[in-house]
User: Which sequence fits this backbone?
């Protein structure tokens, strides 16, 4: 971000990561292949979260509502209105964007702890409304999106999103788009302003920036990226469920971002991956995965607040974006 | 006749029962270097905070270039050309020196242009160009003050408010600073809160003396030096110490 | 049943909820008031109290009253000890930074919840009430135990109030709340006060849980609702105000009782949560102290 940064090196790193993920498609065994597709989609959720938490410094405890808005926006579009895959995805994005603008306008009137509590409460209201309007949403049971509806038609070419390779590549493409979008954002003027707001909002105001408007943009971008992840999740994995709107799915992106490194472009992806590897490894000898989540959270804030990439950047690799 | 750049009418701010600023009428002409002096707690910082919009007045009005800005949010006043540099150094310590200046520079520029050249020019002006890549928090204190001024300048202000800018600077640094303010005053109006009396006498075109939230006196440095009331209240000469 | 008696029943049920809620919320409010931190794991201390009450009563056997009284003493003590440890080992090292503390207490929430699931299991288990006398009202019979919960909660609230206002412990706490640095300078062991307050807050939640467990069963996920409701009570009642907490708890408890008797509980919860979130948005200053950050 400074005048002395190394754009070539940065883009090479991002491309290398994506190339490695592309190569994984051909070598991963079936189980891990499916898991990795899931991780890629959830990493997009984490990247969205990182825009708000990492760069703008706003800790939301309600991001599950944006993920779920995308998920239900897409899923209900397919189930109730017979939307095709592209339109359903757009519908998910639109739901996330609208919801995040509304929530941003309200919640940004508060700051600090009050912001955390308020976002948590709005998310709770959203989750409860999914259960209350069960006739539409399937309530606790959720809805299954039929396999026949998960086809992507480009003229003569039909892509079946239930096919593992198609699914993996779609997830990877989304992940790549989100990654380059956040990388571009943090190098942009707007990204610089967000970091300034995180560091000292009062001072940023006195440089002539409308900090409220900038934060609102951050909430909207963050919420919409999260919604994109939710919509992709619904379309790729064929399921829409109220548990994705629960508190746990607001905490998880926080955990992934903290673990990988807040305010690093690759941190969310790394954090999501590492957390899944850890819980997956641990699940072979214990079912207590919540315990792992809890312990990792506590250890992170106690001993490792910058996360993996944040620590690397502070110690050795100053150029890391 | 030239119109004044800044006018306040009956500007008042209460904190609880205390009137920190009490009915201040104040006029500032364009191109002036104006110093505001007064004992601690006289209401100087509260006064300029109302001018730049960090604090809203309890009553009274503020006019900038003829327009009423009393209720305007701070960031919009900055866009009109009122820049404020903080009394307590308030750079972004975790950002690079470059980014600290890039923030105000990119705001004043149109879209599509890269801020790089302007940032380096602004840093050059205060002599920090060779430290652009450093974290601002690692600069020496005097350099942080200069960076603060560079950030103010980068806003291309019409009115630059400096709140005790020389506090904690060495004599050599103060000399550099005087030169800098003189350059700034070529295209901007400067409003300066300062305790360093020799500096004020040397730099200011006019001086406004605050005491207990009110304007006690106003005039050229010579007039202020000669004013008995000022001497009693502030300069501490003669019988003034008790007041 | 006619509308009048139906409403009376709803109000009685609401008062029981309010009694338990005011104790739980008071714990949360004390911790926020003195330490300026939000304890997201508060509901888990509540749950832990209930689960431990079952464990104690089950281990002792004999007359239900014996197990219950033992639980009333032992469960809060254990919960208090857990909270004390958590405060010393984790929160104190975070220097009470509000955001880190929230993340850490979220971690604590998951740890406690998972441990409860592992060692106690997913079942909901009842604890026998200490006595099972039923009052016969003209329209319906009502459990005397439920009424005694209201009385017990009232007594505990008065006791807490006396401790806070009339004892040296209370004075120390208030001094720390007012200005922890000055308190430190006057020789008050601020770290120990914080640990004590955190433990006390957890114990109040545990006590509330022991009182309610004979009528609502112990379950490892039972901490979520008390946490949310306590937040609501604390926000509406104003922080650190014992009277505000009790008034808000009665308000929320009774309206919850009445509303959920006539409407869907999900809808009731939705509306209540939304209302409180909006209160926080539009009137944050009066509800979260002077400086929310």
Assistant:
């Amino acid at each position: 971000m400074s005048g002395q940064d190394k754009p070539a090196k940065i883009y090479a790193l991002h491309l290398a990561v994506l190339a490695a993920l592309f190569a994984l498609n051909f070598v991963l065994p079936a189980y891990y292949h499916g898991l990795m597709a899931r991780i890629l989609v959830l990493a997009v959720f984490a990247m969205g979260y990182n825009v708000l938490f990492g760069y703008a410094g706003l800790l939301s405890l309600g991001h599950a509502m944006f993920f779920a808005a995308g998920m239900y926006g897409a899923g209900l579009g397919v189930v109730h209105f017979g939307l095709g895959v592209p339109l359903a995805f757009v519908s998910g994005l639109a739901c996330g964007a609208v919801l995040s603008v509304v929530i941003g306008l309200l919640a940004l009137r508060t700051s600090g702890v009050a912001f955390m509590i308020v976002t948590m409460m709005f998310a709770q209201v959203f989750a409860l409304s999914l259960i209350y309007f069960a006739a539409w949403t399937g309530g606790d049971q959720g809805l299954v999106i039929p396999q026949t509806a998960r086809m992507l038609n480009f003229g003569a070419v039909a892509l079946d999103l239930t096919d593992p390779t198609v699914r993996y590549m779609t997830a990877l493409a989304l992940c790549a788009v989100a990654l380059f979008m956040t990388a571009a954002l943090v190098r942009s003027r707007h990204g610089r302003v967000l970091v300034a707001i995180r560091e000292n909002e009062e001072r940023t105001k006195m440089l002539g920036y409308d900090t409220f408007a900038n934060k609102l943009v951050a909430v909207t971008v963050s919420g919409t990226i999260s919604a994109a992840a939710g919509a992709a999740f619904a379309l790729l994995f064929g399921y829409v469920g109220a548990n994705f709107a629960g508190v746990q799915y607001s905490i998880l992106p926080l955990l992934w971002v903290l673990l990988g490194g807040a305010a690093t472009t690759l941190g969310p992806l790394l954090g999501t991956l590492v957390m899944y590897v850890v819980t997956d490894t641990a699940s072979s000898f214990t079912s207590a995965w919540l315990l792992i989540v809890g312990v990792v959270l506590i250890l992170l804030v106690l001993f490792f607040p910058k996360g993996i990439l944040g620590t690397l950047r502070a110690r050795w690799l100053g150029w890391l974006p | 006749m030239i119109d004044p750049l800044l006018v306040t009418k009956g500007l008042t701010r209460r904190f609880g029962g205390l009137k920190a600023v009490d009915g201040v009428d104040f006029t500032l002409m364009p191109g002036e270097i104006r110093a505001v002096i007064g004992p601690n707690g006289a209401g100087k910082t509260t006064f300029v905070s109302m001018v730049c919009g960090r604090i809203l007045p309890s009553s009274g009005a503020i006019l900038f270039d003829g327009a009423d800005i009393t209720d305007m949010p701070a960031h919009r006043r900055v866009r009109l050309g009122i820049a404020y540099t903080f009394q307590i150094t308030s750079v972004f310590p975790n950002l690079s020196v470059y980014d600290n200046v890039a923030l105000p520079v990119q705001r004043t520029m149109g879209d599509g242009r890269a801020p790089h050249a302007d940032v380096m020019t602004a840093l050059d002006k205060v002599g920090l160009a060779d430290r652009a890549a450093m974290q601002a928090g690692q600069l020496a204190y005097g350099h942080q003050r200069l960076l603060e001024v560079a950030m103010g300048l980068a806003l291309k202000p019409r009115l630059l408010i400096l709140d005790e800018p020389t506090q904690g600077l060495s004599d050599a640094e103060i000399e550099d600073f005087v030169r800098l303010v003189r350059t700034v005053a070529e295209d901007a109006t400067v409003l300066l809160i300062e305790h360093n009396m020799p500096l004020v006498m040397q730099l200011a075109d006019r001086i406004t003396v605050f005491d207990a939230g009110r304007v006690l006196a106003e005039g050229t440095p010579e007039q202020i030096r000669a004013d008995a009331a000022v001497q009693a209240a502030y300069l501490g000469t003669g019988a003034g110490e008790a007041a | 049943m006619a509308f009048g008696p139906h409403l009376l029943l709803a109000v009685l049920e609401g008062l029981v909820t309010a009694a338990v809620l005011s104790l739980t919320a008071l714990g949360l409010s004390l911790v926020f008031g003195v330490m300026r931190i939000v304890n997201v794991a508060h509901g888990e201390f509540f749950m832990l109290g209930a689960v431990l009450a079952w464990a104690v009563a089950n281990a002792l056997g004999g007359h239900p009253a014996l197990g219950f009284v033992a639980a009333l003493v032992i469960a809060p003590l254990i919960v208090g000890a857990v909270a004390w440890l958590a405060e010393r080992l984790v929160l104190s090292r975070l220097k009470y930074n509000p955001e880190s503390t929230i993340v850490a207490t979220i971690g604590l929430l998951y740890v406690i919840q998972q441990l409860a699931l592992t060692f106690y299991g997913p079942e909901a288990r009842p604890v026998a009430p200490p006595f099972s006398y039923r009052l016969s009202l003209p329209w319906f019979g009502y459990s005397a135990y439920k009424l005694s919960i209201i009385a017990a909660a009232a007594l505990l609230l008065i006791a807490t109030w006396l401790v806070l206002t009339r004892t040296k412990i209370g004075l120390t706490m208030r001094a720390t709340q007012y200005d922890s640095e000055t308190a430190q300078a006057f020789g008050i062991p601020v770290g120990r006060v914080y640990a004590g307050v955190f433990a006390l807050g957890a114990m109040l939640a545990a006590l509330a849980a022991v009182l309610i467990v004979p009528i609502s069963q112990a379950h490892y996920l039972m901490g979520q609702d008390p946490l949310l409701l306590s937040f609501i009570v604390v926000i509406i009642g104003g922080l650190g105000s014992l009277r505000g907490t009790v008034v808000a708890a009665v308000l929320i408890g009774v309206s919850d009782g009445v509303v959920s008797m006539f409407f869907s509980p999900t809808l009731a919860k939705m509306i209540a949560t939304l209302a409180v979130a909006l209160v926080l948005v539009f009137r944050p200053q009066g509800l979260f102290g002077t400086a929310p950050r």
